[in-house]
Specification:
This protein has about 290 residues and is of the alpha/beta class. It has one domain: Vaccinia Virus protein VP39 (Rossmann fold).
């Protein structure tokens, strides 16, 4: 699968104005990720929020680390514009950069912390992204992230599979593959865990509308290029009804959390050391 970055940027730009209002999952995950900063000792002067969206997490980072410069980095210019409109101070410590994380246009060794909540799943080459992030971080810099795992949208994926063989739902990378990519690109002491968050909806229309509002459309280059007909949508709705539980339709997200450090000294060792993976209990959120 190849992610079409132009499509991703356009999709999130269309969603930008109403994104913050509907982003229940995104706010929840960002809050979980911010809480993890309480477990590490770090006093960054420069922070990069990679995939900053409408800027909620970036503003929380600025409150936590007063005096730090926060760079909001996003693929969508409209998302950055929405965030900028909420920053009324003339002499702001927030800066806004539009670009692709796979070719991060930032000075090497310039940030002590790179924070990324639900951005990595929109990248094609994790090794390239991690190499760019590692290059941007200082020695003993922290990379803290959350992304989506392969169980994400599993109900939608299985329902579409009953309708046709086309690609309708993006695929997501397994936690262990993410950990391996971190090690390959030279990060040390990676720690990762996963949780499943389930949103519920009254009907399939509300579910699909929510996904569209959040810009979470299928960005796979191999997707069906034409419009999806009414007959297929009806068949999808019928298939999805098999997942109805307690009167609601579930939509599951597998959220992978992780952090890793840049080493004090570079090493040529290729051994996969210090990998830690552990699950945490699932959480159900009702809309």
């Amino acid at each position: 699968m190849a992610i079409n970055k132009t499509k991703v940027a356009a999709s999130f730009s269309r969603a930008a104005q109403d994104y913050a209002e509907h982003a229940v999952l995104q706010r929840t995950v960002a809050e979980r990720l911010l809480e993890r900063l309480e477990l590490v000792s770090i006093s960054p002067n420069v922070i990069v929020d990679a995939g900053s969206g409408p800027g909620g997490a970036a503003r929380q980072l600025a409150k936590r680390y007063k005096g730090a410069q926060v760079l909001q980095f996003d693929l969508s210019m409209e998302m950055l514009s929405q965030s900028r409109s909420k920053d009324s101070r003339f002499f702001s410590r927030q800066q806004y950069i539009c670009g692709d994380a796979e070719s991060l246009p930032l000075v090497k060794n310039s940030a002590e912390l790179i924070f990324s909540s639900l951005m990595l799943q929109w990248c094609n080459d994790l090794d390239a992204v991690f190499a760019q992030i590692k290059s941007t971080l200082t020695k003993q810099g922290l990379f803290l992230f959350a992304t989506l795992g392969p169980d994400t949208l599993k109900e939608l994926r299985s329902s579409w599979a009953e309708v046709d063989d086309d690609v309708h739902v993006n695929t997501f990378i397994d936690m262990h593959d993410i950990g391996d990519a971190l090690i390959r690109t030279g990060f040390v002491e990676p720690v990762m865990d996963v949780e499943h968050i389930t949103l519920t909806y009254e009907d399939c229309f509300s579910l699909m509308k929510d996904l569209k509002t959040l810009g979470a459309s299928n960005a796979d280059n191999d997707r069906l290029k034409g419009l999806t007909g009414k007959n297929k949508i009806k068949r999808l709705e019928s298939a999805y009804e098999k997942h109805r539980t307690e009167g609601r339709l579930p939509l599951t997200y597998e959220v992978v959390y992780g952090h890793a450090w840049t080493p004090l000294q570079e090493t040529t060792s290729g051994n996969l050391v210090n990998e830690v993976y552990f699950p945490i209990s699932s959480l159900k959120i009702r809309d």
